[in-house]
Amino acid sequence: VTDSLRVGVIGLGYWGPNLVRVLAEMDGADVVAICDQRHERLETISRRFPAARQYEEPRRLLADDAIDAVVVATPISTHFDLGLAALEAGKHVLIEKPLAASSLEAVALISRARELGLVLMPGHTFLYSPPVVAIHDLIATGVLGEIYFISTSRVNLGLHQPDASVVWDLAPHDFSILRYWLGETPQYVRALGRGCVIPTTPDVAFISLEFGSGPIAHAELSWLSPSKLRRTTIVGSRKMVVYDDTSNEPVRVFDSGVELPDPETFGQYKLTYRTGDVVSPRIHVAEPLMLELADFRAAIVDGKLSTSSDFLGLEVVKMIEAVDESLARGGARVEVDRDVFPDDRLDEADPADAVRAR
Ligand SMILES: NC(=O)c1ccc[n+]([C@@H]2O[C@H](COP(=O)([O-])OP(=O)(O)OC[C@H]3O[C@@H](n4cnc5c(N)ncnc54)[C@H](O)[C@@H]3O)[C@@H](O)[C@H]2O)c1
User: Would the CB of 312 count as within 6 Å of ligand 1?
Assistant: First the structure.
């Protein structure tokens, strides 16, 4: 790849057009082809991007030699087939989250990409979100103290996905964020869920996670809520944070806490409660999707490991599989498969670098 990365985008439903727009706006990339099996989507998007060649069949786009890389923004059940076909056609691939519909599929994609020397990247967009990076830094620098627990709500009305539960749709966001903040994959999960509208498809789930180093977390996910919430509370021994992704002040740091001044007096419960200042740190303004696609380009051009790495994509899929098992077993405590695969690329790049570089 030389000057401009020539990209083809497959899937022009709800999310795909955002990828097309950002690729068209960014330096060093061109959208040279777009593809959707629905003709009307192709027509609508090509009105805005007339220079891009149009394909109804992914197979034909993949045969286009003037394409270096492919972005897959189709439903989850198609990620594996389309991703593999793109790799076999010699294209670098970014697959929207989650990477695949099972860890077996994810492992197969990762192995094949490595054999062929091609970049495979899952689209975990929140890893490039400036508030998420800011909170990572607060945790990493010890400002919050020891992390006791994290509680998060990601709920709104819709959109029911045809081929996936609310867990496969929304948990990739929270799981990738938690993994990044805490620097570890949870050891155990438990989950309760219910298919309220379509009995076989959970549209609400309450997930508990236990991390080996101590923190516990809870995620409430739902497509059935009267109002949209994107709210996370991080409780540390020194400070607490409320992260509200829908707010103008997305990160608020509370100098609040409880102390046991003299552990010897524990029996008498002499606790000190502290409610101090609330600080809203300045957060960079940057579009996460732009940073994500720039990282994809850098992985191809400079050979750097993308922040949203194939390995992280696999871990997120394994976490979701553990949740599915817990749901199937009535909320049982399930161990997450954390076998290191495929090799030693645990040294993930720090997403903060991409944001700070702006
Ligand atoms: N990163 C994010 O923040 C984010 C946000 C939303 C969705 N997503 C992900 O993006 C992906 C797509 O989600 P969506 O909500 O846009 O779905 P969608 O159903 O709205 O759109 C999918 C499109 O793909 C097309 N398609 C399906 N199979 C195809 C095939 N074999 N060949 C060509 N076109 C095909 C469909 O016609 C449709 O237009 C999912 O993986 C989802 O998880 C990511």
Answer: no
Q: How many CB atoms lie within 10 A of CB 344?
A: 7
* Residue 120, token pair as written in the block: 């495979």
Q: What is the model's pTM?
A: 0.93
Task: Kindly state if the Cβ of 13 falls inside 6 Å of ligand 1.
Answer: yes
Looking at residue 261, its pLDDT comes to 78
Amino acid making up residue 342: P
Q: Which of 74, 245, 289, 317 to mutate to test the pocket of ligand 1 (most atoms within 8 A of CB)?
A: 74
Tokens of 225: 């809520």
With a 6 A CB cut-off, is 77 part of the ligand 1 pocket?
Answer: no
Task: Tell me the H-state helices in the chain.
Answer: 16-25, 39-48, 58-62, 79-88, 103-116, 130-140, 166-182, 288-301, 310-328, 351-356
Instruction: Please provide residue 213's backbone torsions phi and psi, each rounded to the nearest 5 degrees.
Output: -85, 0
Nearest CA to ligand 1 atom 11: 73
Residue of 71, 66, 52, 91 whose CA lies nearest to 6:
66
DSSP letter string, 66-89? T--EEEE-S-GGGHHHHHHHHHHT
Taking the centre of ligand 1 as the mean of its atom positions, its distance from the CA of residue 72, in whole angstroms, is 8
Cα(265)–Cα(71) distance, integer angstroms? 60
pLDDT above 80 for 239: yes
Please tell me the distance between residue 343's alpha carbon and the centre of ligand 1 in angstroms.
Answer: 30
| Chain segment 80-125, per-residue pLDDT in tens | 999 999 999 999 999 999 999 999 999 999 999 999 999 999 999 9
pLDDT at 242 over 60: yes
d(CA 351, CA 355): 7
Best mutation site among 21, 96, 307 for ligand 1 pocket (most ligand atoms within 8 Å of CB)? 96
Question: Taking the CA of residue 280 as centre, how many other CA atoms within 13 Å lie in the half-sphere pointing to its CB?
Answer: 6
**C-alpha 141 to ligand 1 mean position (Å):** 37
Counting runs of H as helices and runs of E as strands, what totals does the chain give? 10, 15
Going by their DSSP bridges, the two strands 216-222 and 251-259 should be labelled as unpaired
Output the CA torsion sign for 75, 79, 85, 89.
positive
**Do residues 319 and 189 touch, judged by C-beta distance below 8 A?**
yes
